[in-house]
Amino acid sequence: MSTMAVSIDGKSVTTRLAMRMEDSLQAFAVRAACFIGELDVPYSEEFDGHDFGATHIIAYIGDEPVGTLRVRWFQSFAMPERLAVIQRYRGHGIGQLLIERCRKLAESRGSTMLYAQALPGDVKYWEKQGWRRLVPEETSSGTKRIVAMVRAVDPSKPLPELDAPQAIVLRREAQLDASGLPLGTASN
Ligand SMILES: CC(C)(COP(=O)(O)OP(=O)(O)OC[C@H]1O[C@@H](n2cnc3c(N)ncnc32)[C@H](O)[C@@H]1OP(=O)(O)O)[C@@H](O)C(=O)NCCC(=O)NCCS
């Protein structure tokens, strides 16, 4: 449970980490509704092969999954992504609750920095949650522009220094082939 309290019509919103396959399916259902159904994200892009190495946080009203966030773990940062709240439950702080649960989880696992890749239209949302741009100007190119956003896990501490942050965090991730290997590598 998070210490941040959110309730809708007198019902508390709770958060939980996915521990069983069934929990992960609830996270995937929320994402399918929001990203594939609502925002026209292709299935292959939404379910990109990184879900089974990630931690999924799910928000509930009662037993109903209403929001989710996936966290991937890197040596120098934790990366929240795929933040989604079912449309009719938005504007009550569930997104913020999920981000805060991610922050606490990252803190408990020893991460010092959170890093997210936002679409330009979502930068203000992250900034309202206390994030800032990693580099002042966008450095990504191509059809899908992204903005690197960062936040210290402990807000009372300064952000840790990163060597060549653009090179580290804005590099494109490998696309995987059907066997899970990065495209262009020798298959076995
Ligand atoms: C982004 C999202 C997760 C927010 O969920 P939520 O539970 O409504 O978030 P919160 O209640 O914590 O915050 C809502 C506030 O953020 C604002 N907000 C939402 N999306 C925003 C955006 N793209 N840019 C700026 N502000 C935004 C809302 O207007 C609202 O402002 P208010 O508090 O002044 O009324 C939800 O809108 C969503 O699922 N969108 C579709 C999926 C998506 O785009 N994910 C990318 C994540 S950034």
Short description:
The chain has 188 residues and is an alpha+beta fold.
What would the keywords be for this entry?
single chain; 188 residues; alpha+beta; Aminopeptidase; five-stranded antiparallel sheet; three-stranded antiparallel sheet; 5 helices; 8 strands; 26% helix; globular; binds coenzyme A
- In whole angstroms, how far apart are the ends? 44 Å
Low-pLDDT segments, ≥5 res: none
| Number of extended strands | 8
Bound molecules: coenzyme A
SSE arrangement:
Elements: E1 7-8, E2 11-17, H1 21-38, H2 43-46, E3 55-61, E4 64-73, E5 78-85, H3 94-108, E6 113-118, H4 123-128, E7 132-133, E8 147-152, H5 165-169
Antiparallel strand pairs: 1-2, 2-3, 3-4, 4-5, 6-8, 7-8
Bound molecules: coenzyme A (COA).
Q: Could you explain the architecture of this structure?
A:
This protein has five helices and eight strands. By secondary structure, the chain is α+β, with helices and mostly antiparallel strands. The longest helix has 18 residues. The strands form two sheets. Strands 1-2-3-4-5 form a five-stranded antiparallel sheet, with helices on both faces. Strands 6-8-7 form a three-stranded antiparallel sheet. The protein has a single domain, classed as 3-Layer(aba) Sandwich (Aminopeptidase). The chain is globular, with a radius of gyration of 17 Å. It starts with 6 loop residues before the first strand and ends in a 19-residue tail after the last helix. Strand 4 and strand 5 form a beta hairpin. Coenzyme A binds next to strand 5, helix 3 and helix 4. The site of coenzyme A (COA) has 16 residues, from strand 5, helix 3 and helix 4.
